[in-house]
Amino acid sequence: MSHEQVKTAGEISMKSYLVLSILILTLISGPVVAGNIADQTGQMVFSGADQEAGAADQIDTAQDDGFEADIFQEDQAEQSTHAMVADPLEGFNRAVFVFNDKIYMYGLRPIAKGYARVVPTFARRGVKNFFNNLFFPIRFVNDLLQGKGEAAGMEFSAFFINTTLGFGGLNDFAQKYVGIRLQDEDFGQTLGSYGIGNGFYLMLPVLGPSSLRDAVGRAGDSFINPVNYVQPWELSWGGRGLETVNGASFHIGEYEAFKKASIDPYTAMRNAYVQNRNALVKDLTGAQKLKDSKE
Asked: 148: closest CA among 284, 293, 289?
């Protein structure tokens, strides 16, 4: 074998190793959703209950304003009725749950713990802010699709402020100094606001808990995710890996605590996920009912 052939083989081997490493970092993102059901962006696994409490507060406020109580009582009854979701693929879903659990416990978790030890909190916070700012198109487009013009305007304002004064989004200047607080939006929520139900429950390999509606929504969001258009593709996948590990570093221990507190972690996760998603959609449809009532 010539020197050039050896050199070429070595370059291919190094490139393959790099690609494989990035792929592994990206794929182990799934159970982050287990400890961070709401997002892609930073809420705890128990956030479903918090969202439901927030929705209930909005209902109480609306009642105090003089709107008819039966509308809101009906909303609450519907939320309880639809808290569950069909799970015809439970056998498959449970197998995937175990698979994702192993990937998290023996892959992402130790990497995230090591990353958190090496990278200071302020730097990790900056990375988190950067990606949150980068995902602006997903939230902005879905705000528009949901008819939330004011929220879309706030999104655009926050993006402009954070991109300029916040040094490319590293600093959440809009929230810290202007008081603009953004809400996560995605195409799954948009479909829900149009009256499309969950469908059946899905535990996606690597990606974690979902539903038929949210799986379709995830595919829709991928078309407006800026990271998917970064070139070369190695840089795009590297960015995914960084965002995954950095995000997981803020939630170390949450997934483990969730499992420990659950008699059946699979069922607990399914219920928490569905309740959280229903609460997010209910917030959208409830807000629309309030708007219609005022008009």
From this structure: 284
Q: Rg of the chain's alpha carbons, rounded to an integer?
A: 21
> What is the distance between the alpha carbons of residues 31 and 207, in angstroms, rounded to a whole number?
7
Task: Taking residues 26-55, report their average pLDDT.
Answer: 39
Q: How far apart are CA 158 and CA 172, in angstroms?
A: 8
Tokens for 226, please give them.
Answer: 């800026």
Length of the chain, in residues? 295
The structure tokens 């197998």 sit at: 95
Choice between 180 and 37, residue whose per-residue pLDDT is larger: 180
Q: Among positive and negative, which fits the CA dihedral 172, 57, 75, 79?
A: positive
Euclidean distance between CA atoms 241 and 172, whole angstroms? 22
Phi, psi at 77, each rounded to 5°: -65, -40
Q: State the Cα–Cα distance between residues 245 and 17, nearest whole angstrom.
A: 19
More confidently predicted of 57 and 239: 239
Average pLDDT over every residue of 38-45: 36
* Band of residue 15 on the pLDDT scale cut at 50, 70, 90: very low
Distance CA 55, CA 278 (A): 10
DSSP class of 226: G
Averaged pLDDT score across all residues of the chain: 78
pLDDT per position as a tens digit, 147-185: 999 999 999 999 999 999 999 999 999 999 999 998 899
* Cα 189 to Cα 146: distance, rounded to the nearest angstrom: 9
Burial of 143 (C-beta count, 10 Å sphere; 0-12/13-18/19+)? buried
- Alpha-carbon distance 138 to 134, whole Å? 9
Beta-ladder partners of 208: 204
The beta-strand segments (E) located in the chain are 201-204, 208-211
Q: Which residue has the tokens 């200071």?
A: 120
| Distance separating alpha carbons of residues 69 and 73, to the nearest angstrom | 6
